[in-house]
């Protein structure tokens, strides 16, 4: 897993899973704490995430809210969009451009 960027926009790549969760959490919390306004997570380079990785995203979302910020997901890969829909988290998380529910296969 790799994360690059600053306190306004981060690009997340590789696998966001139980092995990378602690490092990802530290980077995301630091970015939330050090910035203002929206924090954009560009997920275009993300290969996969598991429940732990999704938990890291939700934790960053909650932390951003407590800091008066908003976490925005950008370029969410289709397989991860399906997981967000299946868990109904697409209703909670801000997703740039939304999710085209009609184009996703049923889960």
UniProtKB/TrEMBL annotation:
It comes from the Bacteria. PROSITE patterns: STAS (PS50801). InterPro entries: Anti-sigma_ant (IPR003658), MlaB-like_STAS (IPR058548), STAS_dom (IPR002645), STAS_dom_sf (IPR036513). Residues 1-107 form the STAS domain. Pfam families: STAS_2. Belongs to the anti-sigma-factor antagonist family. This is Anti-sigma factor antagonist. It comes from Streptomyces broussonetiae.
């Amino acid at each position: 897993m790799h994360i690059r960027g600053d306190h306004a926009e981060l690009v997340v790549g590789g696998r966001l899973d139980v092995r990378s969760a602690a490092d990802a959490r530290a980077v995301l919390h630091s970015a939330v704490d050090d910035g203002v306004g929206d924090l954009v997570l560009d997920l275009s380079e993300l290969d996969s995430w598991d429940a732990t990785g999704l938990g890291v995203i939700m934790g960053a979302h909650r932390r951003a809210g407590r800091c008066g910020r908003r976490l925005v997901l950008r370029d969410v890969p289709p397989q991860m969009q399906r997981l967000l829909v299946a868990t109904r988290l697409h209703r909670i998380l801000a997703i740039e451009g939304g999710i085209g529910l009609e184009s996703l296969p049923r889960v």
